[in-house]
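Example 9 (inverse folding). The structure is encoded as follows.
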């Protein structure tokens, strides 16, 4: 069972490489991906936040694609679509300069 304070501390204090390794080890030890346990143990905003962080660690592309898809299907809000595309471009731009 995932504890809220421990998970929050872990996700907010570790760097990308540490979190990637932590997700892999978590799945080896528990037999479940962390996202499944988050889905089972949390709801509401905490579920959404923890899921977003874990998805970004696993794949920025998947995270932004899902956000864009949800926006297009559910709300079709032009401002939100622009925000998602700009955020994705900023992530890509950071990768270009490194």
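The amino acid assigned to each position is listed next.
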């Amino acid at each position: 069972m995932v504890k809220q304070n421990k998970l929050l501390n872990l996700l907010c204090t570790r760097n990308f490489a540490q979190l990637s390794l932590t997700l892999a080890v978590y799945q080896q030890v528990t037999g479940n991906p962390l996202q499944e346990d988050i889905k089972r143990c949390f709801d509401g905003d905490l579920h959404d936040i923890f899921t977003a962080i874990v998805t970004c660690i696993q794949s920025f592309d998947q995270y932004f694609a899902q956000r864009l898809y949800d926006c297009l299907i559910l709300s079709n809000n032009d401002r939100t679509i622009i925000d998602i595309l700009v955020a994705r471009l900023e992530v890509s731009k950071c990768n270009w300069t490194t």
